[in-house]
Amino acid sequence: MEKAITWEQYFMGVVYLSSLRSKDPNTKVGACIVSKNKRIVGVGYNGFPYGCEDDEFPWQKQGNMVDTKYPYVVHAELNAILNSIKDLEGCTIYVSLFPCHECVKAIIQSGIKEIVYCDDKYDGTESNIAAKKMLKAAKIKVRKIPPVKISFEEIK
């Protein structure tokens, strides 16, 4: 019998596949929200809001704030929450990148009880410190797992 990927690998695979929808040239982030009974209830990636076309808004990281991506981009976690199809109480969110403090507020408010992530490249920044402080206070479980490596060429 062939070995199947684990649920964790499956959900993180959905995260990475979703991140490929992002047009951000620097950081592609995906998120997948999963119910207690292992059903995907929300998926998202970082991008501009509906109606804000990719060629009309900037992807730059530096310059005047209105000339950068930062005031316009909706993060993957928030998109997954906004795209969800049910109440998120008790769900788990899988993300490729540890959430910022703004996304953590939305995660806590939505009722999600666990965050599973692969990368924490902003560890130690003020946003990251604030996010972790809120997660600890709200008793949200946080787990880091190794990045998932799945090759479609190997699947036959």
What's a concise summary of this model?
Helices cover 27% and strands 17% of the residues. By secondary structure, it is α/β, with parallel strands linked by helices.
Describe the 3D structure.
The relative contact order is 0.16. The chain is built from 4 helices and 5 strands, in the order αββαβαβαβ. α3 (101-110) runs parallel beside α4 (126-137). The chain is 27% helix and 17% strand. It is globular, with a radius of gyration of 16 Å. α3 links the parallel β3 and β4 (114-119). It has helices at residues 7-19, 76-82, 101-110, 126-137, and strands spanning 30-34, 40-45, 92-97, 114-119, 141-144. It has 156 residues and is an alpha/beta fold. The protein has a 5-stranded mixed β-sheet with strand order 2-1-3-4-5, sandwiched between helices. The mean pLDDT is 93.
E-strand count: 5
Share of β-strand residues: 15-25%
Helices, by number, come to 4
**Topology pattern, helix = H, strand = E:** HEEHEHEHE
End-to-end C-alpha gap: 14 Å
- Counting copies of identical and different chains, the oligomeric state is single chain
Look at the structure and give the mean pLDDT.
93
- Strand order in the largest sheet: 2-1-3-4-5
Overall form: globular
* Biggest β-sheet description: 5 strands, mixed
- Which percent bin holds the helix content? 25-40%
Residue runs with pLDDT of under 50 for 5 or more positions: none
CA radius of gyration is 16 Å
The chain-level structural class is: alpha/beta
Write the layout of secondary structure elements.
Blueprint: H1 7-19, E1 30-34, E2 40-45, H2 76-82, E3 92-97, H3 101-110, E4 114-119, H4 126-137, E5 141-144
Parallel strand pairs: 3-4, 4-5
Antiparallel strand pairs: 1-2, 1-3
